[in-house]
Amino acid sequence: MGAATADNLIARHEAFLHCRAADGPLVGCWVGGYFPVEQFPRGASGWPASALLQPQDVSFAPFAEDYEELYQSHRACDDDFFYVGSAYWGIPWLEAILGCPVSVAAANCRTEPVCENLDNAEGLEVNVETDAWLDALLRFTQDLVEFSRGRFPVCAPLLRGAGDAASAMLGGTAFVMSLLEEPEKMKKLLAHCAAVRLAVLRRLAEILPAWHGTHAAGGCPSKVWCRGTVAYYQEDVAALLNPGLFREFLLPAARQACQGAEVNFIHLHSACLYPVDILLEERAFDVLEINIDHRGAGPAVPQLIETFQKIQRAGRPLVLWGQCSPDDWDLICRRLSPIGLSLQPMVRSPQTKWRNP
Fold first, then answer.
1. How far is CA 36 from CA 106, 140, 148, in A?
2. Which of 80, 113, 154, 167 pairs with 99 at a CA distance of 20 to 30 A?
3. Model-level pTM?
């Protein structure tokens, strides 16, 4: 994409972000499969299954062909976006930096708890100047920036929220029980995770250049592009909680995370939408993104329309990402306003019509 094309296209994206009049929603296809290993089959194949991954095992070079293929595939899409790269998002980078062991799994990498209880967690420290996993992330990102040669923007990888990170450190059951039994200690752990995450984002910002004077987030599924700095956030562990616990424990950490960028968007799953009402009460997040989950994993699209409309009535930009039937996409286009709406369908190839499953 040349500078002139970027200048023309950014106006549509800024209109989306500010909910200005639009003749249609922004469309940005996600090409190449749902799981990280589907997008990076060459790079991820070098690690033996179930092996414990070490920072020195991770480098950019084995992934170079995958990135080139993704760039070319997205370039062939006839939509309003382009490829956005980030360090391989199959690695749980933040959890690794926080001390969790990382092992290789079939579709992704996974972590194991690093703390038996909150007393152990209080002694954990992260030095962002010397941490080996952070160094691996910075090296991978810098190599990707050089590889891109300005052809596509590079952003921070998927860095899960403080709640997701704390749950990884303790294990899901211990995380939930600790919220109830040791709330003050849990608040300290969440604040620690949020602080480390913010420090990682700031280190990455030092090496991530602007792209045609703009910034993008979206090396993981959904994408936002704008003139200001932009960051992605998620708290999938919300599915284990209720609105009261989300508001008391996760929301303060989320607010802290928003200090890392001028524009922030949060990822939600269609199977867990109770946070929508809480998030609409304040302006911590500029954009809400909803992952339309696979059939059987959450409500069908017709049942989600009312929530989508609620977000639009609140004047908040909405990103919808996922794999839907043509009828579902048609329903979304009929029932939702194109103002402040971005549709980001998952497709298997650039030749797939965007409304096709």
1. 10, 16, 19
2. 154
3. 0.93
